[in-house]
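re the bet — no i am not wrong, look at it urself. input seq straight from the record:
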Amino acid sequence: MTTTSSLAFQPVLERIAEEIERTPGRGRAADYIPALAACDPRSFGMAVAELDGTVYGVGDWREPFSTQSITKVFTLALDLAREGDELWEHVGREPSGNPFNSLVQLEYENGIPRNPFINAGALVVTDRLHSRTEDAAGELLSFLRAESGNPAMDFDEEVAASESAHGDRNAALAHFMAAYDNIDNDIPVLLDQYFRQCSIRASCADLALATTFLARHGIRADGTRLLTLSQAKQINAIMLTCGTYDAAGDFAYRVGLPGKSGVGGGIIAVVPGRCTLCVWSPGLDERGNSVAGVAALDRFTTLTGVSVF
């Protein structure tokens, strides 16, 4: 297996960016969230963060974008750190095989979402974090600011309002789970927290740095422990099997890393014990994953030989 020293990350990223630039098809920006529809699908940025906080980047790697479902990883970590295994009584750990906003499985699984990264599961996690902090979105933002070292990171109120105005399906998911006593907070409060959570804007550099606690097996940037070794392993495992919606098998096959995508075009990925990555390009495939982002991560693991396999 080829190995890559830290100093070699930059030329690898530059090679990937050159290859992506020559790639014709880039997908389409998410058009069901009007505030995201105007993004240029050919934008591209990529960053790698080492465990000591050194960051390498290329392209639009310092351009903030809408994080969307990427934030589900961090709310999961924050809640799991607080309540431990009790969480798994309310949300599963299995791939869904269905679109991320599907209502189908909740009907015959008694209101227990299949995993924390589909919308229903993320709503449960946000709900439980909000019950423990009284401000789930604020707790998430504080965590991301601290881990990334970027105090200017913030919510995008336009995106949050846009999602709220087009959030009927998420409201339906929340009400359905509430009927099974799997939601604690008032639905309008939960939805406001969830939409604000998803609206956070961050760059590839920010997110690569913020994710390094998973590569450090649960240790935060300040040296304190957020997660146990087992909890960090659990989150990485769920990212590998469930992090890219109903394309998780193909992502594992191509990339070979735990990852989590968002419809804003970003994808984070973890190399445990080594580094973290974030790539952003707004053009999505039919399953909601960045076309150029998946291709770039595929090339990264191919060129460096770095993967969990």
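see?? The first strand starts at residue 45 and ends at 50. told u. also The radius of gyration is 18 Å. so pay up
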